[in-house]
Structure formats: structure tokens, C-alpha cells
């Protein structure tokens, strides 16, 4: 497995309300990165692009997912979204691999937010944590769904400067009946079918 981790510049931009729309400003002027299959680094069957920027108060992340059938059934907060279709942001503002945050959104707009801390037996997740003032929006169209995250820096003990360790991930279930295998994709491929590999998180550098 390559030790090289991807890097992404997170530009500072002015934002209005959430749109989850890749052709809206400022998203249409920002470069996108493509997710790859988590276990191999190959191109996924259904592509996913990610754009990111910040306004000094919030970290904005936009996923745009190709999807012939964007589906989910879970609507409650902190449900097991990872058993269906979802997109996920993992990030460690400190970068010491002692803990990290995870926030998920599914095609119905349900949210799951957790914080993981290192323990003697590995990383342990805490669902009691809520990302205060988190905002998300989902947009669906023919052959796609998009999700925009607005993550307040004040809610994750971070600051819009320097570099964070992070990963952007997607779980795609192309068939509702499970007849087709799920596909896991990520910006920084962990080279196994498990996103909980903070040592493989890429680097997001925030511009002032």
C-alpha cells in the first residue's frame, strides 16, 4: 500500500444558503476530487465527486453522486445510515490520530454524527455527541444525488487554518434487495473495506 496521502486545498469563499448544487456559486468555480474504490483504488461503478471550501465560520463539503437509484429508508437522527446508501466525512482537526469525527447524510437527509476516541482496544464511537449547529441539504435529480455539509468550526474544536486529516467516503448499494454487492469508495483509499483507518486519512489544507 502506498504511503502517499492525497492533499486538497480548501479555499476560502463567501457562501449563502445551502444549495447542494454543483452549478451554483461558488461550487461551480471550485475543483473537484474523485472518490476511488476503498479496497483497490480503482474507479467505482458509480462516480462520486467532492468539492470543499470554507468561509471562516463553517467548513462546507459538497458530494455529487452518480446514482441510478438513490435510496434509503432511515429518517431518524443517528440511525444506522451505513447499512444503506450514505456519504460520510471523517476528520481529525488535531491530526494526532487519537480521535476523529464522523458525519454522515443519506439520500433522505437523515444525519448521523459521532466522535471516535482511541482506547486500549481500538477506536470507540460515541453517538451521544452532536455537532452543534450542523446544517445539511440533499438534492436529487435524474441519475444523481448531492449533499452539502456545513460544519461549524466552533462545534468540532477546530479553526479554519492549517491542515486537518480527513477523508470523504460513500457507501453505494446499487440494489435495494441486496442482489448486487455494495461499493465502498473514498478520497484516500484505505486499501481495505473499512473507512475507520485514520492513518490513511488525507490532508486538507485550509487557506486563510
* Domain tally: 1
Query: How many helical stretches?
Result: 0
Poorly predicted sequence stretches spanning 5 or more consecutive residues:
none
How much of the sequence lies in strands comes to: 35-45%
The ordered H/E elements are EEEEEEEEEEEEEE
Overview of this protein structure:
This protein has 208 residues and is an all-beta fold. It has a single domain (7-206), classed as Sandwich (Immunoglobulin-like). Helices cover 0% and strands 43% of the residues. It contains no helices and 14 strands. It has strands at residues 7-12, 33-34, 36-37, 48-54, 58-66, 86-92, 99-105, 111-119, 122-126, 135-141, 144-152, 162-172, 183-186, 202-206. Strands 1, 2, 3, 4, 5, 6, 7, 8, 9, 10, 11, 12, 13 and 14 form a 14-stranded mixed beta sheet that branches. Strand 6 (86-92) and strand 7 form a beta hairpin. The protein is globular, with a radius of gyration of 16 Å. The protein starts with 6 loop residues before the first strand and ends with a strand.
SSE order and pairing:
Layout: E1 7-12, E2 33-34, E3 36-37, E4 48-54, E5 58-66, E6 86-92, E7 99-105, E8 111-119, E9 122-126, E10 135-141, E11 144-152, E12 162-172, E13 183-186, E14 202-206
Parallel strand pairs: 1-4, 1-14
Antiparallel strand pairs: 2-4, 3-13, 4-5, 5-11, 6-7, 6-12, 7-8, 8-9, 10-11, 12-13, 12-14
Features:
mainly beta; single chain; Immunoglobulin-like; 14-stranded mixed beta sheet; 14 strands; 208 residues
Brief digest:
The chain has strands at 7-12, 33-34, 36-37, 48-54, 58-66, 86-92, 99-105, 111-119, 122-126, 135-141, 144-152, 162-172, 183-186, 202-206.
